[in-house]
């Protein structure tokens, strides 16, 4: 019999407990042996847990370990004390299935080393995009492909907030309160709203794609707290919708990652991903573009990811096939793009059809408040060799669509607090040839140029 331990019995832990309790026959068929939950570590013994036998619950790690679990599901929050528990378990040859993205993003490298030295395994499908089996797809079904780019909506809370703001014209704070009341946002929403939750997930994806943790410390992160309802409304005239995206792409020197709000044209595969749904778009050199979409959080989808992870890991480990290190190529093998004499990336196969990253980043939407913002945006455009495609101003506010030919606009932006800029992420030429042409019939230069 396989003895199961659960660290945590909150939203995710209780989903795992339910799935194991009701799915014992299925698990026996898949694993060839019985499974039984023998120990559950919680923090607060006063909480009511009507569906769980009291004798399974413990409040200290020593008692948890004393029940001798063979496999442990970790579903508590944050790095401490989760790191201590998981490293102890791995050191003692006990496999761990984790949902804890912060733990894996910050301590994954060390935990993999410990697992590898102890000859056991660590898996964390549920830590990225909830029920979507994106890590399994990258680990098992995209081994041959070189992944050139990944774009995703990895945080359901912020996607819910932006969807509601856009569809109902409500303010950020009103929608945030609604989301909290519905249980879609935490009482402390900082990690979601500031983009950290999506950043942890992007760092984990970067490891799966490159086999290295070395790039993730340089990834940049910008959340949605500065987004205002009028930004979304103003951009609708360009056929654009705002999403908090997590993007990973190859550069000449390695891998770059960004979490930030970007405008997407209606034809972009992520533009219609609404509410708490997550999606991940992966571009491989042989397969082309793939889009994975589904529930990014919640009790049952996350439990599903953990149980599938467990079944797969256990079966693989039994047959001796579980890789100690899931990355497909070491960092030194990350293929650098071939550049021609003008520094333009040369593409082959399926990649040929994708516009280059630099090309996509040319378009930016600026919002500012008069009159200081007006001067700032003009300075920014000049310093970044920008070009106005559209500008509209009222006495108080300004909106501009710009084409930036120098990527330094990002650095300039930091010194420009009166202006809010969002990149436009284009997936193909459709938006340029239709939306831009129609806008250009109506081009106005800013009055002050
Ligand atoms: N919620 C989701 O949809 C989702 C999706 C994907 C990944 N995740 C990740 O899954 C993990 C769990 O999330 P959740 O939503 O289930 O959180 P949660 O509802 O807050 O549950 C956390 C559980 O951990 C227990 N716990 C907290 N600190 C502990 C400690 N020091 N020692 C022992 N137990 C402790 C809590 O005990 P008490 O019950 O006694 O308070 C609770 O049972 C997090 O890392 C989260 O990022 C969540």
UniProtKB/TrEMBL annotation:
Molecular function terms from GO: homoserine dehydrogenase activity; NADP binding
Highest taxon above the source species: Bacteria
Gene3D superfamilies (alphabetical): Dihydrodipicolinate Reductase, domain 2, NAD(P)-binding Rossmann-like Domain
Enzyme Commission number(s) of this protein: 1.1.1.3
Pathway per the UniProt entry: Amino-acid biosynthesis; L-methionine biosynthesis via de novo pathway; L-homoserine from L-aspartate: step 3/3; Amino-acid biosynthesis; L-threonine biosynthesis; L-threonine from L-aspartate: step 3/5
Keywords: Amino-acid biosynthesis, Methionine biosynthesis, NADP, Oxidoreductase, Sodium, Threonine biosynthesis
Keyword Nucleus listed: no
One of the GO biological process terms: threonine biosynthetic process
Substrates-to-products reaction catalysed: L-homoserine + NADP(+) = L-aspartate 4-semialdehyde + NADPH + H(+)
PANTHER family, per the entry: HOMOSERINE DEHYDROGENASE (PTHR43331)
Protein name, entry field: Homoserine dehydrogenase
Organism: Caldalkalibacillus thermarum (strain TA2.A1)
Lineage: Bacteria, Bacillati, Bacillota, Bacilli, Bacillales
């Amino acid at each position: 019999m396989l003895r199961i331990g659960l660290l945590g019995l909150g939203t995710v832990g209780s989903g795992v407990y339910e799935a194991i309790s009701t799915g014992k026959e299925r698990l026996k068929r898949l694993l060839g042996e019985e499974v039984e939950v023998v120990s559950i570590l919680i923090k607060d013994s006063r909480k009511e847990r009507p569906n769980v036998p009291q004798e399974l619950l413990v409040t200290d790690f020593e008692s948890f370990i004393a029940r001798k679990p063979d496999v442990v599901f970790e579903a508590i929050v944050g790095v401490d004390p989760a790191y201590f528990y998981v490293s102890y378990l791995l050191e003692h040859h006990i496999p761990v299935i984790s949902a804890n993205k912060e733990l894996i993003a910050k301590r994954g490298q060390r935990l993999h080393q410990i697992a590898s030295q102890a000859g056991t395994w660590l898996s964390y499908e549920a830590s990225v995009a909830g029920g979507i089996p994106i890590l399994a797809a990258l680990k098992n079904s995209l081994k041959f492909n070189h992944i050139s780019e990944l774009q995703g909506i990895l945080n359901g809370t912020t996607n819910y907030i932006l969807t509601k703001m856009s569809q109902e014209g409500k303010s950020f704070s009103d929608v945030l309160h609604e989301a909290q009341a519905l249980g879609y946002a935490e009482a402390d929403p900082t990690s979601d709203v500031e983009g950290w939750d999506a950043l942890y997930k992007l760092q984990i994806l970067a490891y799966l794609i490159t086999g290295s943790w070395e790039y993730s410390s340089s990834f940049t992160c910008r959340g949605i707290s500065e987004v205002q309802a009028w930004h979304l409304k103003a951009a609708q005239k360009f056929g654009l919708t705002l999403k908090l995206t997590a993007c990973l792409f190859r550069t000449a020197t390695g891998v770059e990652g960004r979490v930030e709000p970007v405008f997407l044209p209606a034809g972009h595969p992520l533009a219609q991903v609404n509410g708490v749904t997550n999606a991940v778009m992966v571009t491989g050199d042989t397969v082309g573009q793939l889009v994975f979409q589904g529930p990014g959080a919640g009790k049952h989808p996350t439990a599903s990811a953990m149980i599938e992870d467990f079944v797969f890991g256990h079966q693989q480990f039994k047959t001796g096939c579980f890789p100690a290190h899931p990355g497909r190529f070491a960092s030194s093998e990350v293929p650098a793009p071939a550049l021609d004499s003008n520094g333009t990336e040369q593409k082959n196969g399926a990649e040929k059809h994708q516009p280059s990253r630099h090309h996509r980043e040319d378009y930016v939407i600026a919002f500012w408040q008069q009159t200081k913002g007006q001067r700032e945006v003009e300075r920014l455009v000049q310093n970044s060799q920008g070009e106005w495609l559209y500008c509209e101003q009222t006495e108080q506010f300004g909106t501009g669509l710009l084409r930036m030919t120098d990527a330094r606009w990002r650095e300039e932006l930091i010194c420009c607090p009166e202006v809010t800029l969002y990149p436009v992420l284009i997936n193909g030429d459709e938006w340029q040839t239709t939306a831009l042409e129609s806008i250009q019939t109506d081009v106005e230069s800013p009055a002050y140029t």
